[in-house]
Amino acid sequence: MAARGAKRPAQLKAPDKLVFLLSLVPYLLEQRVVDVADAAAHFGTGEQEIRDAVRLIATSGLPGETGTYQPNDLFDIDWDSFEDDDVIVIVHHVAIDDAPRLSAREAAALIAGLQYLSASPENAGSAQLASLMAKLTEGASAAPSRLAVAESEADASLARIREAVAGGRQLEFTYRNALGHEGRRRVDPLRIASLGADWYLQAWCHTREDFRNFRVDRMSDLVVADAPIEDHSDREVPDTLFQGSDSDLDVVVDVAPDALPLLADYLADSRTEDVDGRLRVTLRLAHYHGLKRLIAGLPGLVTVVAPEEARAVVADWADAGLAGYRDAPSSVPDDAQSTGPTG
């Protein structure tokens, strides 16, 4: 009989009981042989709850091809050890060995991404990331390929920007806009955000006396100043990365339906028109030159419709790219090149 006043383990609710059972099976398989008392201590529950769970596991499994349960389709335990000695030994298990595993290439890709995250200042020396990379290596179906993530110039700039944001200090840098114009800026750095492969700094620009977004790969000669950032609590800091302006330009494009979410930040409104299987929408951009990078990132998925000036900017940019290929020396011998039909 339990001692008077002894605290009984709390009864598990249905969702917690499911999590408990899903945790208990791998634990028993790993331990191979375990006392009921040790299992109860490990999970912080009562011994009777462990016994009930083990009996439930012994009636669980996967039906065979006939849709009925055969002896080999169920878990089985050493009943003599369980009933006589209070010892749990699973002698047959199902389904666990069929768990999907990452391929070597999948694991290598994930590890490369974790290496990139580990290189950022806030994650330097992270034990959690190191542990996760080790688990991915051990859990892959084969040894993952060794990959190294090289630090880019943007990564070095990000480190300096994070230093300024964390320290609450102003930042000075040279900025080159989309038109190629450069100028020195002094800003109060507020937030770092990413959009696709690009990183942006959201800051209060002392030169423009307004909030601005600066693309990190267009920043150079960064200097973290000694001056602290100013108090901007009386100003409304934009929640989105891109904000509209009275000087923005409207551009009409046809876009593949699946690619429309990639343009969500640029949409002028939610109106769409179906045109030959594509959606015609209006984008709002600060200048037409911003279309060049946007179109390049979505090859074949976006077509500029209007205005003509926007079409000309994209066409001239594409022609300049093709000219670079035409001017490059050919690696194919002249006598191997075909001139095409002459008829």
Automatic annotation (TrEMBL):
Residues 249-320 form the WCX domain. InterPro entries: CBASS_pafABC_assoc_protein, PafC-like, PafC_HTH, WCX_dom, WYL_dom. PANTHER family: PROTEIN PAFC, PTHR34580. Residues 16-137 form the PafC HTH domain. Residues 158-223 form the WYL domain. This is WYL domain-containing protein. It comes from Agromyces tardus. It comes from the Bacteria.
